[in-house]
Structure formats: structure tokens, C-alpha cells
Design a protein that fits this description.
Elements: H1 6-9, E1 14-15, H2 17-23, E2 24-35, E3 38-45, E4 48-55, H3 61-74, E5 83-87, E6 92-96, E7 101-102, H4 103-109, H5 114-133, E8 136-137, E9 146-151, E10 154-159, E11 166-167, H6 178-183, H7 189-192, H8 199-221, H9 227-236, H10 247-259, H11 267-284, H12 309-338
Bound molecules: adenosine-5'-triphosphate and magnesium ion.
Length: 346
Amino acid sequence: MTGESCEEVFQDSFVTYDELFDLCELDNRRRLGSGVSGTAYKVIFKDKYACLKLGKCLEDQKSFDDEASILTELKGAGGAPLLYCVCNNFPAIVISFRGGITLYKYCKNNELDLETILSLFIKVARKLEEIHLRGFTHNDLKSDNILVQETDGCLELNIIDFGLSTEVGGYVDWYHTPEEHEQYPHYAPEVFFTGPCTPKGDVYSLGYMMFNLLGSYFRKKKIPGPLCLIRLIDFMMDAERTKRPSILQVIEILEKIIDHLGTNATPQDAAASADAASEADAASEADATSRTCAVPRDDVPPVTDVPQRGDAAGSSIINKIKRVALRHALYTALSCVFGCIQQPQY
Ligand SMILES: Nc1ncnc2c1ncn2[C@@H]1O[C@H](COP(=O)(O)OP(=O)(O)OP(=O)(O)O)[C@@H](O)[C@H]1O
Ligand SMILES: [Mg+2]
């Protein structure tokens, strides 16, 4: 699909439901995945592989229309699929096939080292930056909505699923209670409740994704996560969006941490090395506005704004995450001292 421009592929392709199935040959009915808003199939569309996203019912129409118009505007930014065709009497779109597997599966199926995992986060952050520069926010970033493809030994990452994406400053059209946020913790509190959606909402979701993927890595290695990474995630997931670092700051910090990871180091050395990097940064970077992971948490000024409903829920999830991180650190420390102990359920 590389080299195809959006204009080239989306030539006023509005079709009826019947026409859609004439145009799309189902590739052995291969279901790529399904979610709340429908099912994705791998199809052959005009002699090339494509992805058919099919809604469940007519109520899904708005989210499909929104996704179609945002994909047109994005023009492939962040690896977003190109729009091939829109169904005009049922929620369905045909988009370019991005191949590969989800980042979640990629990390689960491969024995990745810390440097590779952190490099993947940087790649995701760069893709997000592309989307933000186009004036949009993704709002639903998670490892299931990122596809990883290996081409000529290089890993390519594509962000997919723009069903909840909005313009920067926009609002997702839904209503939720704080209890519901616990079921969908990857959404930034302001995205889930009050709005507006800004790039900082995607920073929050990236932080949550990093928390999960790094949590699995350190649990597997049975070592505590480096404090600088825990701090970085903590900043990224601040309930107050203005206090989160920007995507560019996240990239910068991750690059610094990678720089300090010795290539031959054991995971323990790597963790210690990453913390050493954090301490070095703390000494050299005293800029209070660009709050890096090196700034101790206690230095953060108290929130003076009247707390919003979203903030309360955000704080509760941050506290929960902190508790989990603390429990995990304690568990790994104890298991180092006493040998193998039963792994706690998070
Ligand atoms: N363009 C694409 N190329 C290849 N695979 C895709 C593509 N789009 C979606 N998929 C696959 O289909 C799955 C579901 O697609 P998508 O995330 O867009 O739908 P969804 O219904 O909004 O899912 P959810 O609600 O779980 O986020 C993805 O996780 C991915 O595996
Ligand atoms: Mg999805």
C-alpha cells in the first residue's frame, strides 16, 4: 500500500451494502478482530488486500461516518489506514490493510529486551505526534489499536481504529460514570468524562499502555521496574492533563533512558542504569515546566483548580496504579530475597 495517496484510493466510493459485497471478496472469511463497534475482516478489494470494518447495527453509523471522515483528513498520518470505500446504507467502511499483528500480541509472543520495548514506545509516540500535527487526537490508544509489521528487518508501527478520534479540542459524544472508568482505564479521564480531547489525552493512554507492557516485562524478569520509568508513567497519567509531559518530552526522556542502557547489561543492570540516568537528569535539568521523569513526585505543586468529576476518577485510577506499582516492586524485591513466591493477581 505504500506510495498510495488518499485521493488516489478514495474516489467518491460511496456504495450500497449490496454493492459493497460485490466489491469485497472475503479472504476465506478471515476475521481480523472484533470490538464494541463491529467486526473487521480481511478482504480483497480491487485486487489488493483491504480491511472491511462492519458495524453491528444502524446505531453504529455515526462512529463509522466519523472514522471515515477522519481517515480522509489524516491521509495516512501515524500509519492510519487509507479510506477506500464507505457504505451509505449500513455502518461499513473499507480501508487499507495494515497487516502485521497487534502490539499487544507482538510483545506477548516475543522475548523483547527493555531497549526494544522502549524503542517501540518511541515509535508509537512519533506516530501519535504525526496525528496531532494533523490536528487530531486518537483518544483510544491501546496496544490492540497498534499494528506491528516487520518489513526488511525493520519494524513498522501503524495506529488504527479512529472510531473515537476527534479534532484537537473536540469532545467524544458519550456519558460515563466514574465507576465505568475502572473498566476502561486506558482512556484519559477528560476524554472519558468532561473533554476536551487534546494530545495530552493520548499521552495518558500511552502511559497506561507503557505501564501494562513494562509491568509484564518486569514481572517476567522478576525485577522491580526502574524508578525513572515509574515516575515517567506517573507523570504521563496525571489526572490533570496540563501537568502531563508533551509527546516530544516523552520521546526525549525515553531516548535518554535508552542511551543509558548498556547493550550487554542484565535486566537488573539496565534498570539500575536507567535510574542512574534519571538521577543525572535530575541534577542537570531543573526546568519546572518541562517536568521530566527525573523530577521527584513531591515537587509537584498542589492542584488549585476545583476538582472535576473526571479528575476524581483520574486520581482514583492513578492511586490504584501507584498501589499496583508499589505492590509489584515489593513483590519483586521480596522474591529476590526469599526466592520464588506466589505472583499476586493485579
Ligand atoms: N487496517 C487494518 N489492517 C489490518 N488489521 C486491522 C485493520 N483494522 C483493524 N484490524 C484488525 O481488526 C481488529 C479490530 O479493529 P478495530 O480496532 O478497528 O475495531 P473496533 O471494533 O473498534 O475494536 P475495539 O472496540 O476492540 O477497539 C484490530 O485489533 C486489528 O487486529
Ligand atoms: Mg480497536
